Each structure stands twice: as structure tokens, then as C-alpha cells.
Amino acid sequence: EVEKMATSVRLQKLRALMKSNRFVNETLAAYVIPTDDQHQSEYIASCDKRREHISGFTGSAGVAMVTTDKALLWTDGRYHLQASKQLDCNWTLMKQGLPGVPSIIEWIEKEMSPGAAIGFDPALISEEQHSQWSKKLENAEIRLVGVADNLIDHIWDDRPSFPTDNIFHHPLEFAGESWEEKVVRIRGKMRKEKCSVLIITALDEVAWLFNLRGSDIKYNPVFFGYGIVTIDDVRLFCDENRLTTEASRQLRPDDSDGVKLHPYSDITDHTLQLIDTTEGKIWINPSSSYSLCSLVPSSRRIKKLCPIQLMKAVKNDVEKQGMRNAHIKCAVALCEYYCWLEKELNQGKEIDEYSAAQQLEVFRREQELYVSPSFPTISSSGPNGAIIHYSPTPETARPLSLDELYLCDSGCQFRDGTTDVTRTMHFGTPTDKQRECFTLVLKGQIALGTAIFPDKTAGQRLDSLARLPLWEAGLDYRHGTGHGIGAFLNVHEGPQGIGGSRSPREPFEANMMVSDEPGYYEDGEFGIRIENIMLIKPAETKYKFGGKTYLTMEPLTLVPIQLKMVAPELLIEREIAYINNYHTRCREEVGVVLLEQERIIAHQWLMKETQLIG
Length: 614
Prior knowledge:
28 strands; globular
């Protein structure tokens, strides 16, 4: 059983601050605590885990709200099981996405009286979110009140300090394009929009633009910083003392056309000064914080996706090669791992989910340019596999056994690329139901991975391809099917993606990358997911209707699909051919590296797992 954190004292202290007029000159009827940091990051630094501090829930998504007598937490389907285990008796779990469950705003409209003030930290809510919420609440005469001093920070005694690790250079051999060349392309996009200032707030966009990396947020090689590009200069806001000599040198801060360095907290002053001293439009992504966006007069704002997001999503040749290399190294470590796991379990050794994940880390560290995992490893056995974002701890880890399914979703950060791969394995004899479900998931994964579609198709339109085999059996899964991925950057990046709560709208183009990861989960029993990272590339088609290019996908992930989990009678010829071709690539591209590295036993395992079928 998971240890629940006691929250009564923390809630009492927060409610006292909501009543006192210390930080806001009226009594707050409720206070909203989102997961986000001031850069709207998906993963956050320890010092920003405010929602976790107040609620005890550790998932990566969710919004908490505390009223005078209630505490509620909204989170999506990935975390319903986890949250119900972690929240203590003070909290009500609002299972977002289930029928009859109101959204946070619907709940406020229904439960709060007109005139009520709902407090929030303007730095932690995006402008987009703020405008949706305030529009809806206006009709109910309920106000959103910005509290610049975060209330949680005032009741958090042992709050971790702000990160201070080095910010280092991401060299051309991995980046493939200098920051100067990137700035030229950005200014071209700014001119098209009649824009004189671009404000960059997302941490991975700042890192990508300046060819810098850091370690401020676990698993994500980013650092706290903002960027500004004007038609005449380029500015970086970060703690200058943390830049390594090499990182600082390549920015050329002393040259007239180099990057001007400023303290991290000066971003507000510079934004206000640029509003006063420039003509033309100011471009700031609406998913940036309300506190920053609201400084810019609406009439002067370009409320579009930051151009860097799309530029970063389309990988150059150097990044593509780096990502291929990273995925082969990742596959080598996984072959070693599954080979080891199978051997140990069949010899009756005791291994639990946590110690298994620790051993995987040992194999990965042996690969060159390895930095860290790219997210917490999901090593889940039996019923834990149904907890979509489960992460084992020494206290909660279940033993692995020959009688249960094992789902492992893990990824690496290498200096030359980022990986994310899921495989579901059985080390004994799977049931017919498990094989049937696995094969339906695999059919969907193949359907999406082999699809040919017009250039600029939105990911949303491809989502049902992965679900169709499951739907036909009356099954489904409660998560998105695919996300973009960074090149030695965040494991999840936009603006492209396939399905899911963030429903990205941006269409696919060649040289983007996306995961292909359908699944099926039976609560209390097992979970199945198969995930590859795919490169989007031009497809060879007989015709080109309307002069359009067509696109398809190629897997970068090359890890065997366990054949004993496949029910061959459910496959059609095309699917069998795909599996055989895929396994041949695993043998050729990963097998050769296993031999080079003299990992002979893992190589034998790979050959056994990739035998041709049909």
C-alpha cells in the first residue's frame, strides 16, 4: 500500500493565508495550485513542485484547488489510479475525462457564490488558460484574482533551493546549426509577421536556440532562462555565472552581434522597456505565463505558437543521425536487459520492479555519451502495468514473476539524442486473452507506423488508425497515441502529436519525429503498450494528387517485439511481413553493435527473439 502524505496541517496554514490580507487585499474563496512552473514546463524542478507539496500527489499532470472547506484535485486518465492511492482523506479526486465529472471551471460555477474571488499565481498559469477561465467565470460573476506572491511558498518550510548546476555548450557536431544561423531564420519569420520582438519562454526553446543545455530539471537537459530576439539584437536571461567557459565563448557576449547576457529576473523589465521603445508587433506564445503575456498590449501582440517550436520539431541531418545513433545504443542496452531478466527469472532469482529498473540503468551507463534517463522508468509487473504512469519505489515495488506480464517504458538522454521505448514481455506463458490484446495493440501500432498520408496532415486525423483493431473488439486506451521528441532535449515536445489531452493541432511534415504507442490496460490485472519513436519522411507514391507530397514513417526504435505474445492467427500477411522486416532490421543494425561490443549472450538473445514468422 502506498504511503499517503498527511496534508491537514498544510491545508490549515494555506487557508489561514487565504483569509489574511497579507498578500492580497481580499479574502479568497479558493486558491488554485497548478502543476506548472513559470515556463509552463511539463516536468518541473523540485523547488516548483507546489501542487505535490500541498496534495501529496506526485503525477506529472493535474490541478489542485483548495477552498475554505474542501480540497480537490483534477487529473487525467493516466493518473486516476495513482492519485486515488496517494491522496489522503482531506482530498476529493476529480477524474477528468470521465462522464459526469465537472471541469474545474464548471465546479467553480456551480459551487461558488457570485462575487467570489479565486486566487492564482499569474506566473504559473498560461495566458491561454487564463483567458478561457475568465471568460467562463465572467458570466457567473466570479473573479480570478492574481496573487503575485505564491502562497504555497510561504507555507513550504524546507523548499528546495533554485538549481545552480552548470549550463554547458551543445556543440555543432550534435546541433547541426549554429545559434547565429537559427537567429537569421527566426528573423525571417518575424519579418513576415511584421514583428520587431520575439519573447521566448519555454525552456527547451531557449536551450535549442542558443545551443546550450543544463540539468535544472531532472530528466530534461534544460536550464532556467528566457530569450529575446529583436531585429537588432539577441538577449539571454539566465544566471551568467553558471555558464561554462565554452558555453559563454560561443555566445560571443562581448561582440556587438553576440548574445547580450542579463540576469534571469530581468525579463519583465526588458519586456516593458521594449514595449516602450519599439514599433511593430511583439510575438509571445499564448501558452506563456499570464504574468508575462499580460504586460504586452493586446493590439501589439502576435498570439501564435513561438516559431522555434516548429523549427525545433523538424530535425536537421546531424540531429537525425544523432537520434539514430542514440536509438541503437538504447536498443543494445535493452537487449542486454531483457536477456538478463529472462535468465535471472528462469533461474528462480528474486527481482522486483525497482531493482530491475536499477539494473537497466547499469546497462545504459555503459553506452557512450550517456547522460541520464529521459523520464522515470516505468517498470511495472502484473496489475501495476495498468497504472499508466506507474513508477516503482523500493517500498511499493512488486516482484517480477514468470506468471505475469511485465511492461517497461523507459528512455535515455545521450549527448547525441533522446530515446523513449516501451515493450511488454511475458517470461512464462501468457494467457490467450493477453496474447489477443497484445496482438490488437500491435496491429494498431503497425497500422499507424505504416500509414501513408498527405503532407501537412494533423496528427489528430491519424489517431484512429492505432485504435481501430482495439475498437473492433470493444477495447480502447485512455492516453494519447503519440508525442514529439527532442534531440537531447525534452522527451515530450510539440507542436505535433497524435491524439491525447493536449491535442496538438500542428500538422506533420518531413523530418519531424513522433512516438507510435497504442496500449491496452485492464485494471487490477495487466497493462500492454508497444512504443517506437518514428521519423516522418517522404513516401514513394504512384501518383501525387494535387501535386502534394505524401508522408510515411520509419521506426528509429529497434527493439524486438516478443513473438510469444503474438497471436499469429489475428495477423494479416502485410502485418507478418512488417514484423519480419522490422526484426531483420533489429538483427542487422543492433546485432552488429552487440557483436562489436562483445555482448555475445545478448546477441544470441536478439537472434532468438527475431526469428521470422509465418
